[in-house]
Amino acid sequence: MWNLTIVSVGIFALMIGAGYLCQFLEASAFSLIAVYALCSALLHFKKYPSSCIALKAEDFLIVCLLLFIMGGWCIFLAIPLSLDMLAYVYLSAFLAYINYACGMRFRSLF
């Protein structure tokens, strides 16, 4: 199941790269990829019950927790935070995590 983790980190990296290309993010925001990869590896050990439900309320809460961790990382590295940056990082993390979580839920049906 680690392939879903790798794909999730890849999606997050592509979104951060697109944000840098569109000048939503600074170059120092690429360090968030390592933070997301670490958090994603830790989330790999979470139990996902088999379900056909694509979105759950806990998904939004987990991504909010990831956003707080990444925001703390940005404050630690003195990366300037803005509402636009936080919204874009939330969107990036949400898309990557939902891909991962849905893959785990649907895969456990078989």
Note down, in words, how this protein is organized.
The chain is mainly α and 110 residues long. It is built from 4 helices and no strands. The longest helix has 25 residues, at 83-107. It is elongated, with a radius of gyration of 14 Å. The mean pLDDT is 88.
Characteristics:
single chain; about 0% strand; 4 helices; elongated; mainly alpha; about 110 residues
The portion of residues assigned to helices is over 70%
**Gap between N and C termini:** 13 Å
Overall pLDDT level: 88
C-alpha-based Rg, rounded = 14 Å
Low-confidence stretches: none
Shape: elongated
Secondary-structure element order, as H and E?
A: HHHH
Q: In brief, what are we looking at here?
A:
The protein is built from four helices and no strands. The chain is an all-alpha fold and 110 residues long.
Topology:
Blueprint lengths: L1 H20 L10 H12 L13 H20 L6 H25 L3
